[in-house]
Amino acid sequence: MKQRIITAVIAAALFIPFVIYGNLPFTIGVYGLAIVGLYEILRMKGISIFSIPGLIATLILVAVLMPNDWAMQVEQMTTYSKYELLTIAIILLLAYTVVVKNSFSFDEIGFILLGSLYVGLGFYYLIATRDAGLEYIIYALIVVWTTDSGAYFTGRKLGKNKLWPEISPNKTVEGFIGGILIAVICAVIFQFIVPLNVSWPYFVIVTIIISIFGQLGDLVESAIKRHYSIKDSGWILPGHGGILDRFDSLLFVLPLLNLLHFVQ
């Protein structure tokens, strides 16, 4: 626990200034986080990010992550849109299976494409949400962090019924519900201090939804790790694991906030 707290404090001290400042340093920082996340998920499958498939996966990630203004500049310079770059990457992956006589298979192509999109889309919406306003990022972080903490402490104190033991043996129904309640309370306090331009009923409903989906994002990553028989996605954050271990909830929450048109 002590190591987790120390790592969390140091990571927050490094991450929060970038979030507050935004702009180019934030976007570059998110690219760095996403590339580490891609490295972690490829490693689960035994694919090196420095291999040809790994480099193509990085190309996919870079294209997915491009903010709209960057994508327009790239298109003006190269005549290729980000979607055409993705098409090129897919063609290259398919051609590679032939070059290596199927030692790199169609299944691995599917893993690379879905893995790159899983990481890339989540971090893309981290950039897009910050561009929409600092208050939306703070709101998302508050909901995710308080859900996580609320679920942990409620589960330890009151937890009796396992939520999904096949995926994450330590999570409980009581912790799941407690995480949602704590997140709603903290989000409501935030709304009083920094009002977002939404009605109160909609605000509470969205908070409940993204608290649930934040926990679902955590379970999804747990399911992936369990499938590949690993404990943590990486080692970069002592006591916490890897980048995906810390950002798994946000990878679900941020796209959902935008799909719900909560971020304006």
From TrEMBL:
Species name: Ureibacillus massiliensis 4400831 = CIP 108448 = CCUG 49529
Q: Indicate the family of this protein.
A: Belongs to the CDS family.
The compartments listed are: Cell membrane
Q: Which InterPro entries match?
A: PC_trans
The UniProt entry, under PANTHER family, shows: PHOSPHATIDATE CYTIDYLYLTRANSFERASE (PTHR46382)
According to the UniProt record, one GO cellular component term is: plasma membrane
- Which terms in the Gene Ontology molecular function aspect does this entry carry? phosphatidate cytidylyltransferase activity
Q: How does it sit in the membrane?
A: Multi-pass membrane protein
Q: Which domain of life is it from?
A: Bacteria
Pathway the protein contributes to: Lipid metabolism; Phospholipid metabolism; CDP-diacylglycerol biosynthesis; CDP-diacylglycerol from sn-glycerol 3-phosphate: step 3/3
UniProt keywords (A-Z) are: Cell membrane, Lipid biosynthesis, Lipid metabolism, Membrane, Nucleotidyltransferase, Phospholipid biosynthesis, Phospholipid metabolism, Transferase, Transmembrane, Transmembrane helix
Can you state which reaction this protein catalyses? Answer: a 1,2-diacyl-sn-glycero-3-phosphate + CTP + H(+) = a CDP-1,2-diacyl-sn-glycerol + diphosphate
Q: Name one GO biological process term.
A: CDP-diacylglycerol biosynthetic process
The name this protein goes by in its record: Phosphatidate cytidylyltransferase
Give the Pfam families listed for this entry: CTP_transf_1
Enumerate the transmembrane spans. 6-39, 46-65, 85-102, 109-127, 133-154, 175-194, 200-220
Report the EC code(s) recorded for this entry: 2.7.7.41
